[in-house]
Design a protein that fits this description.
Strand order of the largest sheet: 1-4-5-6-3-2-7
Number of strands: 7
Structural class: alpha/beta
Distance between the termini: 33 Å
Radius of gyration: 26 Å
Shape: globular
Number of helices: 6
Length: about 350
């Protein structure tokens, strides 16, 4: 039994192969784009493994690896300050491939039913496997059944032990607070600040609402402007009360990570915060994002999606996706620096 979506994986691999070939044959491609060809080649290799995967979980893992690399490549291509035709074509090809691969990662993994490998009780001994055949000292099958109780209850009658919900890994709360002595006044916890009530003269440019920032404090022209409306996130809800303060700690191995959509632009994405204590959808928040190396930034956002920790049918980590609102250019540069080292999560718009 092979991977059921091997055909889609092959289709995606062939599309990426054509895009990679076009990049390699174009002598005018910017140097920074040529560096991304390794990412495309890596995704092609992962899809090749998915085609010939022997099981559903193995094939799905390969597709997820390819999707992660492609989401990183798409975000980095959006940061290329060039209007080259090959760059545009490659960006479109990657977006098309992502649209093929993403549904494969959300499909429930097909697993063999419990006890499928065990022969039925009514199966004749001649058709049983050697492991399930009775020992030589056992009475013949035509003889009367033993009068005593069985040595152990039949395994097929008990519930599957692997379905216990307590086996899920318990995630730590992401808002790990540092002591006041370890923080500078500018990095105090959001819960101890009142940016909405502070006078505008005391607010930093990054914490000012988007509508009150000067043009020089808003995202620069490097952020793509002409993006189809269908690829943009939904409008931010109007805060009904004070924004909830939270802290998102992101590192090389944390379950929390940045996410992007089909546009590839990180300003249209946000932060996936792995936690069991998610806020309701559309909750307005004020978020402090901490990154390796002591870097951090603040931004407004809202809860765009929630992954229920009690949804045991889902293979994704529980938590919530915080959509960015008015990401500053300084914050965007920090996010892009992080993405160059670690691929973001892909979230379908």
């Amino acid at each position: 039994m092979g991977y059921s979506s091997a055909g889609e994986a092959r289709q995606a691999r062939e599309s990426l192969g054509k895009a990679l070939e076009a990049l390699q044959q174009d002598t005018d491609v910017p140097e920074e784009v040529l560096g991304l060809t390794q990412n495309v080649a890596k995704s092609i290799g992962a899809l090749f493994e998915a085609e010939y995967a022997s099981t559903e979980p193995d094939g799905k893992t390969c597709v997820k690896n390819a999707l992660g690399t492609l989401s990183q490549t798409l975000a980095l291509l959006q940061d290329v300050k060039s209007d080259h035709a090959a760059v545009q074509k490659t960006t479109e090809s990657i977006a098309d491939v992502i649209s093929v691969l993403f549904p494969l990662t959300t499909k429930p993994t097909l697993r063999p039913p419990e006890g499928a490998s065990e022969p039925p009780a009514s199966q004749p001994p001649s058709q049983r496997s050697p492991a399930s055949a009775p020992p030589a000292s056992a009475p013949p099958a035509s003889g009367p059944p033993a009068s005593g109780p069985p040595a152990s209850p039949p395994p097929a009658s008990g519930p599957p032990q692997s379905a216990e919900p307590l086996e899920r890994p318990i995630l730590l709360r992401p808002a790990l607070r540092r002591t006041p002595s370890q923080r500078s006044p500018a990095s105090a916890p959001p819960s101890q600040r009142s940016p909405a009530s502070a006078p505008p003269s005391q607010r930093s440019p990054a914490s000012a609402p988007p509508s009150q920032r000067s043009p020089s404090q808003r995202p620069s022209a490097s952020v793509p402007v002409e993006v189809p409306t269908s690829l943009l996130p939904p409008p931010a809800p109007i805060p009904g009360s004070a924004r909830q303060g939270l802290e998102a700690n992101l590192g090389a191995t944390t379950q929390s990570n940045f996410y992007v959509g089909f546009s590839g632009e990180i300003a249209h994405g946000g932060v996936f915060l792995a936690t069991y204590e998610a806020f309701p959808k559309d909750t307005s928040v004020r978020m402090l994002v901490t990154l390796p190396g002591g870097f951090e930034f603040e931004c407004d956002g809202y809860v765009r999606f929630v992954r229920d920790p009690m949804d045991f049918a889902s293979e994704s980590e529980p938590g919530m996706g915080i959509q960015f609102e008015g990401l500053s250019e300084e914050a965007r540069e920090l996010v892009m620096r992080f993405i160059r080292k670690r691929p973001p999560i892909f979230y379908d718009v």
